[in-house]
Write a structure and sequence with these properties.
single chain, 252 residues, alpha+beta, five-stranded antiparallel beta sheet, two-stranded antiparallel sheet, 7 strands
Length: 252
């Protein structure tokens, strides 16, 4: 048996991508016959592939019979942009992890929720056990409180009206007035802390970052025994956060 030259290619996949490229070249859409001609595909094959792409959301069929790119591709494009942005800042997060011997976290405030975008840890610096999702624990995490501190009053009120301040540990702040008072009077401002409020035995520090107009936070977690290093960690977080903001705000 002879050895194959090069990788095994799936012809149907290649044809589907050729069709997508042809569709993308027509801002106002193009009919199947024209797309088949441009891609040099049999008309029946083009019809079958287009029907599949429409079904899965990668292509949309217009009322006049033309085809344009679908919403699924837009979501993939957005995800790809996010991946590119994160790849820019991951080395800085890893360097911060190694320098401080802490797990490092990056969050963004998107669609009214605080979401974790990246966690950089290691066997020697494990992440916090995320036993409650960050979307439901913004009040109990330094990362979430950092975002809340930076939000304007209306956005902050909206967030708190939609999220119950669950009692996660004996130290969790469950009163909105107390939470706001703690956030606004943080002794490490603009950094904020989580002192065993999310998980017993763990403290966290976070500072704000931005990706363009999108607010986020950069933070680290460490054992409560290292709590005396919070001022030192704050001093390192602030310049790294500025660097991360610059990287995230560059146009792709």
């Amino acid at each position: 048996m002879g050895v194959q030259d090069g990788p095994t290619l799936i012809t149907s996949v290649q044809r589907a991508f050729r069709l997508l490229e042809a569709v993308s070249a027509h801002e106002n859409g193009a009919p199947a016959k024209q797309l088949a001609r441009e891609t040099e595909l049999p008309l029946a094959t083009a019809y079958h592939l287009l029907r599949t792409l429409v079904h899965d959301g990668y292509v949309r069929k217009l009322p006049d019979g033309g085809f344009v790119l679908g919403d699924k591709l837009k979501s993939l494009q957005s995800a790809g942009r996010t991946q590119t942005l994160l790849s820019r800042v991951r080395p800085a997060l890893a360097a911060l992890r190694d320098e401080l011997s802490t797990a490092t976290y990056l969050t963004f405030y998107e669609d009214g929720e605080i979401r974790v975008a990246e966690i950089v840890d290691s066997p020697r610096t494990p992440r916090v056990d995320l036993w409650v999702g960050f979307e439901d624990a913004g009040h109990a995490t330094a990362l979430g409180k950092s975002v809340l501190r930076e939000l304007d009053e209306d956005a902050r009120r909206d967030y708190l009206s939609r999220h119950h301040l669950a009692d996660l540990t004996p130290r969790t702040i469950t009163s909105v007035p107390d939470l706001l008072r703690r956030i606004e009077s943080s002794p490490l401002a603009p950094a904020v802390t989580d002192l065993e409020e999310y998980a017993l035995g763990t403290v966290c520090v976070a500072v704000p970052v931005y990706s363009g107009d999108t607010l986020g936070s950069l933070g680290v977690s460490l054992p409560v025994e290292r709590q005396d290093r919070l001022q030192e960690i704050r001093a390192r977080l602030l310049p790294i956060a500025s660097r991360v903001t610059r990287s995230l705000s560059l146009t792709i």
